[in-house]
Design a protein that fits this description.
Elements: H1 5-23, H2 31-38, H3 45-53, H4 62-72, H5 76-81, H6 84-88, H7 95-119, H8 125-136, E1 143-149, E2 155-163, H9 169-182, E3 187-193, H10 203-217, E4 222-229, E5 234-236
Parallel strand pairs: 3-4
Antiparallel strand pairs: 1-2, 1-3, 4-5
Helix pairs in contact: 3-4, 7-8, 9-10
């Protein structure tokens, strides 16, 4: 226990030193003061991120750290999408700051989801696609998910059911059918991501969609859409006329 005290004291000193840089700014120019005075819309992305990070790193204040992170990850989207281990590997970002960044990302996704639930816009391919893009588009591996809906297009559940490439069509179809019956769903939207960044559906995607639609129709469950997403784009097979 005693051996950890010097490191703890150094960490405390580093945090206090980085925080003191902002504390010495002209009061009206400090990020929190600017947000209070002008509102969040009047703040730069780096300033908003700095407020969330709370403190900086040794040798740089929170705003400088935020600017460096945005530069290293190519902007706020790349930063929020970065996995925990990659964030923690960056100088000045430990477990706490990495967790703060991932929490910001998840809150944004849940906000989008809550709007869908309240407005019942699950029949709108654009709205659902944006939600799935935020939820799955940045995953480093391929994943397959289902949105289960009732007859009023209200959400019954959302599940990421499979991981890995879609090459076992019949197994995927049977599992989706089983979970649809367990949810007592009247309709299902399926989605998966392409980690390559190209959201164009493959032939396997199209085959799965048609097979699943036929299978679900036998038990009067409607396949509303199959949406393929990447980090920055999406494709609705319904809108493409492939469903």
């Amino acid at each position: 226990m005693a051996s950890k005290r010097p490191q703890q004291l150094r960490d405390k000193g580093n945090t206090e030193a980085s925080a003191s840089v902002i504390a010495n700014w002209v009061e009206g120019e400090q990020p929190r003061e600017r947000l209070s005075r002008y509102g969040a819309a009047g703040m730069s992305t780096a300033e908003l991120l700095a407020i969330c990070l709370v403190s900086g790193a040794p040798g740089e204040d929170a705003v400088q750290l935020a600017r460096r992170l945005l530069g290293e990850f190519g902007g706020i989207s790349g930063l929020l999408a970065a996995p925990m281990d990659l964030l923690r590997a960056v100088h000045g970002v430990g477990l706490a700051k990495a967790a703060q960044i991932k929490a910001i990302q998840e809150l944004g996704v849940r906000d989008t989801e809550s709007v869908l639930v309240k407005t019942k816009c699950f029949q709108d391919p654009s709205a659902v696609s944006e939600y799935l893009r935020k939820r799955m588009g940045t995953l480093p591996h391929e994943a397959f998910a289902c949105l289960f809906l009732n007859a009023k297009n209200e959400q019954l559940g959302f599940e990421i059911m499979f991981h890995g490439s879609i090459d076992r069509t019949h197994l995927h179809a049977r599992e989706v059918l089983r979970r649809g019956l367990e949810h007592n769903a009247a309709a299902i939207i399926i989605g998966h991501n392409h980690p390559s960044g190209n959201a164009e559906p493959s032939q396997a995607d199209i085959v799965l969609t048609r097979a699943l639609s036929d299978l679900l129709a036998q038990v009067e469950i409607r396949l509303v859409d199959h949406i393929v997403v990447s980090s920055h784009s999406w494709v609705s097979l319904q809108m493409r006329g492939l469903l």
